[in-house]
Amino acid sequence: MSRRKSPLLPSALALGAALVSAPAWGQAAAEPSAPQPGEIVVTATKRSENIQSVPISISAIGGDALAKGRMDSVDSLVTKVANLQLSSIVGDNTPIFALRGVSMSDYSLNQASPVATYYDEVYKGNFAFLGVAMYDLERVEVLRGPQGTLYGKNTTGGAVNIISRTAKLGETSGYANLGFGNYDRVDLNGAINLPLGDKAALRVAGTYSKANGWFHNVVEGVPDPGGVREYGVRATLRYEPSSSVRFVAQGSTSYQDPTNYGIYAQPTADNRAGLGKWEIASDVTERRRARTYSLALHTDIDLSDTLTLTSITAWDKGYLHFREDSDGQASQLIEIDYDDKASQFAEDLRLTSDTGGPFDFIAGLYFNREKVFNSSTMHLATDTDVNADGTIDYTDCVDSELSLACQFRNRFDQIKKSLAAYTDLSYKLGGHVTLHGGLRYTHDTGRQYDFTSDALGVDEVEVLNLIPSSSLRFSTDNLSGKLGADYRFDGGTLLYASVSLSYRAPSFNAQAFFDASELSIAKAEKVTSYEVGAKTQLLGRAVTLNTAAFYYDYRNQQFVNVDPSTAVQTLLNVPKSRIYGAEADLTAIAASWLNIHGGIGLLATKILSGTVSGTNVAGNQLANAPHFTGNLGIDITAFDGPSGTLSFHPEVAYQAGQYFEMVNVARLRQGGYALLSGHIDYESADGLWNLSAWIKNATKKQYFTSRIDLMDGFGLDYNHVGTPRTYGITAGLKF
């Protein structure tokens, strides 16, 4: 591979120069005080703070902006957050996030992403727990970089925090929204807040959506893939028996059973002949099904004026089942059933100080137990009568020597436990400099047991036991942490620098089908992160500019390795990679009627050593790591008078080309593309009702969200396609 200089280096150096010059700009800004209208208070550091005071690279989106922008799925966050990508290889609303190039190169349902997802501070690791999340939200926070000294679960890539609106004491209020869109879409969501005396309140929120599939199926009588059919309900009870004790209990459930996603197959043969780019020929009629249940209790007890004890106790249960038409055609060349059932219990107990003096701390204990049952069934050419006897049964699988008219089914149970102790400390040196540090000790154990794999006929008759009942286990200890400092100028500008060590626990292979040698444990991932950043507000706070630059030493990234000669799959590690890049987030109040907001992300990744699928990948780019991402939105208030307010909100998001796999197959590279979206809003002068018209992917751009090379085994490239143009109107009422 060539050792030519990365084109991102000048850009990164330029951004670094901007960080050095930032103090001169910040000194002209107003002295920071209470949050101003439009500013967001976050809890990224487990304290309520203005986002400009947090020495972390973080993007936050408020609940109103999420609702008006029709961001009703976690997938849509990628158009708002620089250096955030996703792979939708297991379907919509179950994204595999990549942040700053740190991603999960495995599509197994037993795995947990290196970019952790939290709902109201509860870690949701397994796909079966995700459900319908984006409704009645206070905000979403995306934290870039390793997390561990503040968060329950250690992660190497970052964290996505989804924070719902809590119940409000002494207030009766609520809202309801009704929307219609193309593909016969119907949306209904709302919430009601009820006081229960002076010390308690109840909030109940819900959402319902239904839409036909957007991927037109030319097979008569078979539904169009890509549909929506889901609901979610959440109840929150807040109780404050005294000024020093606070309880928030929450219960939620969700259910989804849409038509599943469709696969855009690009074969060497001509089975896409006669099909348009938004058409598919699929014979799978089975719906995708996902159910979640969740209970959580958040308790805060003020032990004194300066110490608060917090307990977050949570239980989750969920299942996910879908049948994938992996060949994307009406034949039964390859189809796969996925089943995932999971439950977890978690406890996060921490002590937080707020002394008002130079020294403050957070000290916590964390426990998580997750139990998972997984089963995958690979159906290979099950419509083939191998022996031409007029019946397709187990004898056809036998006569084909396990290559046609066969089902290959594996199943296993898995238990993972994580026990950790963590600290986060800060000490102010004088009036400008604050030192930060933290340590985390983690003890992780895992057991995969009752793993079996069988070859079956179409009639479910067992032909051969390929992997007898087997088990694997691991136990590991890790000490990680963070050391940093920040400098706060009199004008409000904040400069910060940090070094972090992070770790992701080992993982079990779920893709073993044919031989016991496929059973494997990938070693723990480790990332050493170096980061500098600046948070500035200029021109009397009219302009907010937050920037960061980083370098990662990335060790042992976990990935699925496929032996090209035998199709044996094992879960292994890429020994060493490096990542560097930068981000900038800008918000500007250009006039009383004009706001501008946007962000850019620069990224350069390189594998330094590793072998994938028999190929030396040293010098290649990491998967899901485009060198540039950017987003820009404009808020225009066209009219604001006695009858109400009319506003326009055009948006564009751009992503440069990227690979979805580490071999960097040229034909599988997704080129750069832009997505145009926007909404027009009208709100009555009294704020009681509103009307919105919205559109996404206005130019109907076709782009891929994941791609896999199946040419050698099945003669096709397997692709997931992003959603085409969608649009609609929504009417809302508040009370």
From TrEMBL:
Keywords: Cell outer membrane, Ion transport, Iron, Iron transport, Membrane, Receptor, Signal, TonB box, Transmembrane, Transmembrane beta strand, Transport. A motif (TonB C-terminal box) lies at residues 718-735. Gene3D superfamilies: TonB-dependent receptor, beta-barrel domain. The keyword Phosphoprotein does not apply. The keyword Hydrolase does not apply. Residues 251-697 form the TonB-dependent receptor-like beta-barrel domain. It is found in: Cell outer membrane. SUPFAM superfamilies: Porins (SSF56935). Residues 1-26 form the signal peptide. It is a multi-pass membrane protein. Its main location: membrane. Residues 51-159 form the TonB-dependent receptor plug domain. InterPro entries: Beta-barrel_TonB, Beta-barrel_TonB_sf, Plug_dom, TonB-dep_rcpt-like, TonB_rcpt_CS. Belongs to the TonB-dependent receptor family. This is TonB-dependent receptor. It comes from Novosphingobium organovorum.
